[in-house]
Amino acid sequence: MTANMRETKHAAERLWSMATPTIIQVRVPVPFSLKWINSYILLQHDGTFTIVDPGLHTVEAEEAWRTVMSELSLHWKHCSSIIVTHQHPDHYGLAGYVQQLSGAPVYMTRESKAYTEKLWGDGKEQFHQHMMELLNLHGTPQDIIEAILENLHSFQAKVEPQPQVTYVEAGETLQAGDIQWQIIHTEGHAYGGMMLYNEYAKLLLCGDQVLPHITPHVGVVAGEQRPVLKQFLNNLHSIRTLDVELVLPGHRQPFHEYSERIGEIVAHHERRLASLRQYIEQNGAQHAFDCCEWMFGKHLRNNAHNMRFALTEVIAHLQYLQELEELVEHASADGIILYGVMSAAK
Q: Is residue 338 situated within a structural domain?
């Protein structure tokens, strides 16, 4: 099959497509509702290439990469670098595997790599303890806590082997795929996240910070006290000024309406904040788990992965409403955090 024939196949029947003349979008499968993550191959004139966000380490992902490399007649020995936009396992998990095959350096920010140590390194036992405490504080039933912790533990094998990392930081530039990229800091979705931007081509590799059709997950992190939703919204305001013609996101398809999409994401969170406040105003003080089931439904009890995402995001919204002084928290008799509407007399 020729390259032109491969290009004309329906997108659902192939794993890759040309995002630009020198950038290939690779759809790497993941075993949860998003179905795949976008990895990107940045081709260089000397025959080498860079990989951005190689995916989660599963048998299916390995097979997908073998297929793509074969169809494109690429060899791992020609991979010159690996870039990880942020530390979430669906982006980071294959980095060490690809590094072993290629010998290429893996580029991440220092903060992003430190988070991997917290989840899958020396800090993992403490992180699991913090997660259990967080879930307990917010009214989560014990069986769901156990399922969430088991789900978290299952990701350990999907990020091994872990890579040796070369650190880069926001404000620096990085050469990849014959393009000089500016590294831009992102906040809210992942600590230490970064985007890659080229102002001349008006091209943005944005990881998960701005996604089409779906909103990036913004949830509290166990053991941390950062105002994640506030940070995320402030960061969107900051990066909205970039002059972008094509966005290459971590999920779904590349798109063009960059500034407009940021506006839609901000509006989504404003609606969710208003809905939560109204629910609590009408029903009295609530804990986060009840708010989560009201917002997303009880069916999430059967999906620990999605429950963790939904619950930590609801907590982030409740905490932001508290920061805005629209809600106030207090502890119930059994120590669970309840959120109520701030007294009008305050």
A: no
Determine contact, residues 53/250, Cβ cutoff 8 Å: yes
Q: List 194's β-bridge partners, or say none.
A: 185
47-70 core/surface letters (b: 16 or more CB in 10 A; e: else): ebbbbbbbbbbbeebeebbeebbe
Distance (Å, whole) CA 329 – CA 332 = 10
Q: Under DSSP, is residue 54 helix (H, G, I), strand (E, B) or coil?
A: coil
> Could you report the per-residue pLDDT of 246-257, keeping only the tens digit for each?
999 999 999 999
Q: Tell me, yes or no, whether 305 lies in a domain.
A: no
Q: Inform me whether the pLDDT recorded for 10 exceeds 60.
A: no
- Model pTM above 0.90: yes
- Whether 121 maps to a domain, the answer reads yes
Identify whether the C-beta of residue 30 lies closer than 8 Å to the C-beta of residue 36. yes
Instruction: Report d(CA 113, CA 104) in Å as an integer.
Output: 17
DSSP assigned state of 245: S
* DSSP designation for 331: E
CA gyration radius, the chain: 21
pLDDT for 13 equals 61
Q: Domains in the chain: how many in total?
A: 1
Instruction: Tell me the β-bridge partners of 83.
Output: 52, 107
For residue 106, give the 3-state DSSP assignment: strand
Reported for 101-104, long-range contacts at CB under 8 A and 24+ positions apart, including other chains, are 101/76, 102/76, 102/77, 102/78, 103/77, 104/51, 104/79, 104/80
Answer whether residue 242 is part of any domain.
Answer: yes
Supply the mean pLDDT for the chain. 94
Burial of 294 by CB count in 10 Å (0-12 exposed, 13-18 middle, 19+ buried)?
middle
Residue 215 is part of a domain; what is its CATH number?
A: 3.60.15.10
